[in-house]
From TrEMBL:
This is TolC family protein. The keyword Repressor does not apply. It holds the Pfam family OEP. It comes from Arcicella rigui. Keywords: Cell outer membrane, Coiled coil, Membrane, Signal, Transmembrane, Transmembrane beta strand, Transport.
Length: 481
């Protein structure tokens, strides 16, 4: 009987030191390299890059070849006769055209200048004749007058959009780190709970066996043995539940970080905290210099100003100037168009002037003004919220650093207290109930410590996500792009 008691009393504490190679930082790096979320962020970054390249190409010279080759027609057409009657005449011809043009957009004015060559061939199959018409060279300008200049605003806004997308990519990677931290500690807590459940089930089994021996000796009541039997059953249910939760948490972490192997793994508890001191103002300045939100503040104001400019420009006189100068000629051979070419001029001004629109123009302008004011107010409020969010996160991080230290000390004290309770039980100076209470307090302290670590690391990665700043290395994450 004494040997059985000693076997119970020397039940060892749960060992939380993991024999595993997978640490939190390794899991984070694995997710950044292999996870679907990281791959999606990388793909989106590439898409944004090529979209910006497409925008830049719009402001560079464009060389194009256009035309219709062939353009064959065989039909009857209506022909008005000198006496006013109509005759339907058979036609069979080919009217082909080729145009080679080099154009350049002018961002400051919104216009386009161009130089082009054109060759037209007309084949009349009814009369078996061929004629050529062409423009050896022509220079032209198409210039909007008193109109909204889309290119001018795009040149200011599109680079901001691209910079914003670059920061969104970095934020996406930090968001991956934050999510990994959540999944990692979900599994870590589940594994700790599983170890506790296994040990509690073992302890209750041992207690029940001892109680059964004591019942035979008449030293305990039947009510006590039933209570212990109930504890055994509850411990078995807790163990089954803990196994299921650990399985689910394992699958979630493996799926997110891109771990494709079938084998399971344990996790290392990240005891070592980051030795950093974070100044709230420095964190705010880092965020304002790096976060996509800070770039979006400027972009939103510019877009609202653009909309107001567009509303004003479209309310008055809208005109378009088209000018072209060059040479042109005709002949029976292609080279004839280059012989004694004649001057070719074209000047056109198209315009629209609203005379009466029943206040529609004014309404559009006033709406755009109100939207600009609303955007300015919204951005100002968002800036305050943005700064407050970072300040709150910094203070939370500082508090959680202290919280981890307190829970670590509590865990150490609870472990020592349980050891003392074991020693007192050996000396028959403590009841089984008090020993169970000490065990529960030790387990709860261990869980609280792991939860405090989870909250600490989540706050750390959240702060990196908010600021795009590595406070440990004291450098912006932009430098690593």
């Amino acid at each position: 009987m004494k040997k059985i008691l000693l076997a119970l009393l020397f039940i060892s504490n749960i060992s939380f030191a993991q024999q595993t190679a997978l640490s939190l930082e390794e899991a984070v790096q694995m997710a950044k390299d292999k996870s679907i979320a990281a791959k999606q962020a990388s793909t989106q970054k590439e898409t944004d890059f090529w979209r910006f390249k497409s925008f830049q190409a719009d402001f560079k010279p464009q060389l194009s070849l256009s035309g219709s080759l062939p353009s064959f027609t065989r039909s009857f057409i209506q022909v008005l006769q000198p006496d006013g009657t109509v005759a339907f005449q058979s036609v069979s011809n080919n009217n082909s055209t080729l145009t080679l043009a080099l154009s350049q957009s002018i961002a400051k004015t919104g216009g386009t200048i161009f130089i082009q060559k054109q060759l037209q061939r007309f084949d009349d199959f009814e009369r078996n004749s061929t004629l050529y018409n062409g423009v050896p060279v022509a220079f032209g300008l198409s210039q909007p007058l008193f109109r909204y200049n889309q290119m001018k605003w795009d040149k200011q806004i599109e680079p901001l959009k691209y910079s914003e997308s670059q920061q969104v990519f970095l934020e996406s990677l930090e968001k991956v780190s934050l999510n990994v931290s959540d999944y990692y500690f979900d599994l870590l807590i589940a594994q700790v709970n599983l170890q506790i459940a296994e040990k509690n089930r073992s302890n209750n089994d041992t207690l029940y066996k001892i109680a059964s021996k004591r019942l035979e000796l008449g030293k305990i009541s039947e009510n006590d043995i039933l209570q212990l039997r109930l504890s055994v059953l509850n411990a078995q249910k807790d163990l089954a539940s803990a196994k299921q939760q650990a399985e689910v948490a394992m699958l979630q972490l493996k799926a997110y970080i891109g771990y494709r192997e079938a084998n399971k793994f344990d996790l290392a508890i990240p005891f070592q905290l980051k030795n950093v001191e974070i100044d709230a103002q420095k964190a705010i300045q880092a965020a304002l210099g790096s976060r996509s939100d800070a770039i979006a503040f400027r972009r939103r104001i510019l877009e609202a100003e653009r909309d107001l400019n567009k509303a004003k420009a479209e309310n008055g006189l809208n005109a378009n100037l088209n000018v072209a100068f060059g040479l042109s000629n005709r002949g029976t051979k292609p080279l004839d168009i280059y012989k004694n070419a004649q001057d070719r001029e074209f000047v056109e001004i198209q315009f629209t002037l609203p005379i009466m629109d029943w206040g529609r123009s004014k309404a559009r302008t006033e709406t755009a003004k109100a939207n600009l004011q609303l955007t300015q107010q919204s951005v100002e409020q968002d800036k305050l919220t943005f700064e407050q969010q970072i300040y709150t996160q910094v203070t939370l991080f500082e508090m959680l650093q202290k919280q981890v230290k307190l829970t670590a000390e509590t865990d150490e004290i609870a472990t020592k207290r349980y050891q003392i309770a074991q020693d007192r039980y050996i000396l028959a100076d403590l009841s089984i109930t008090d020993l169970g209470i000490a065990l529960q307090e030790k387990d709860r302290a261990k869980r609280d410590y792991i939860v405090a670590l989870r909250d600490y690391w989540r706050a750390y990665y959240t702060l990196r996500y908010y600021t795009l700043y590595d406070f440990e290395l004291n450098e912006s994450l932009n430098l690593r792009k």
